[in-house]
Amino acid sequence: MEMTKFASSVALIVRRSLRCDEVYIDRAEEAGGIRILSRHEVTALHGGDAGLTGITIRDSETGEETDLDVEGGLFLAIGLAPNTGFLKDLVALNEQGEIVIDENGHTSVPGGVFAAGGDATCVKAKQIIVAAGDGGAKAALSAHEYFEELTGRPTEERAVCT
């Protein structure tokens, strides 16, 4: 929901059904500008040196593929297994197929592509709590900062640590 402050629309692509408290689904629907695409999977990412320009998704029930235009970026969170083969031409992957990220969830793509998750990324600790708490939070904050810079609309003062 944070991304709706910067984007005219947000697509939440979920491989199965959305598994969270109903209150979060209600909030997303009330916020407006959020499309929840259940039972879809990302099959391709499109772009080049300038960054990400589109995503192809497939409906798991019908097999129908849809192209989504992307202006801004992608926040990627993959579940338990590193199902990252579709990313091989977009972001740097290590020998294990994990997405190479820095300490704040930035990938090798400068145009707003972030990653989180202990099984999808090259983080040392593979526990869920580390991936969600540390990696997910850092990647989300990095994405938030990226959209602030992209849109020129900061939402709050930043504390700088030296």
Describe this structure in words.
The longest helix has 24 residues. The protein has a 3-stranded antiparallel beta sheet with strand order 3-4-5, with no helix packed on it. The two termini are 31 Å apart. By secondary structure, the chain is an alpha/beta fold. It is built from 2 helices and 7 strands, in the order βαββββββα. The model has no long low-confidence stretch (mean pLDDT 79). It is globular, with a radius of gyration of 16 Å.
Summarize the structure.
The protein is α/β, with parallel strands linked by helices and 162 residues long. It has 2 helices and 7 strands; from the N terminus they run βαββββββα. The strands form 3 sheets. It has a 3-stranded antiparallel beta sheet, with no helix packed on it. The chain has a two-stranded parallel ribbon with strand order 1-2. Strands 6-7 form a two-stranded parallel sheet.
SSE layout and pairing:
Blueprint: E1 10-14, H1 22-31, E2 34-38, E3 40-48, E4 51-59, E5 65-69, E6 74-77, E7 113-116, H2 128-151
Parallel strand pairs: 1-2, 6-7
Antiparallel strand pairs: 3-4, 4-5
Features:
162 residues; alpha/beta; three-stranded antiparallel β-sheet; two-stranded parallel sheet; 2 helices; 7 strands
